[in-house]
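Please, is this right?
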Amino acid sequence: MQIIIPAPKNYISTCKRICSELESRSVSLEVVEGGSERQYSIWNGIKVLNTGVELVAVHDAARPFVKEELIVNCFKTADEFGGAVLGVPVKDTIKEVKGYLEIKSTPERDSLWQAQTPQVFTKDLIVEAYRSALKEDFLGTDDASLVERIDGRVKMVMGDFENLKITCPVDLKMAEIIAEGWNA
């Protein structure tokens, strides 16, 4: 197994030191320089994939509570379908707005899902998606959006609401609650 960690330039040596302590015969850990955007960081990782890699998973470090069985489900689905994304149905009503925050529309909630990570793809598919995006200067919001724009097939895999992305202070409070449950 190969794990590639894109990191900011000033954290590369720290990440390499930590990885050297965790590396084993069955797991290769590499640190590459990240980019100015998430997409460029992932591309820097994709460029150093070993030749024998068949499936590529992208996972945000900001999601520390993903469960092993969900990762396995995502890999199985990607192996069968080409691409797979963990996600959960949205709980809230979503509004599309235009200038000056005027509501434009309310999409049907039953067709809306909140994407999570990991997102898993066949290597050929994700490489093609990234090359196309770079060539056309397209910046996507996640890896699946790059695959979708080249008409690649991606299937949603039921995730878990505990697989939360920690991005703001309230998320840290939720993370503490989840971590207490994991350690119980």
In short: The two ends are 30 Å apart (CA to CA). The chain has one domain: 35-183. The mean pLDDT is 95.
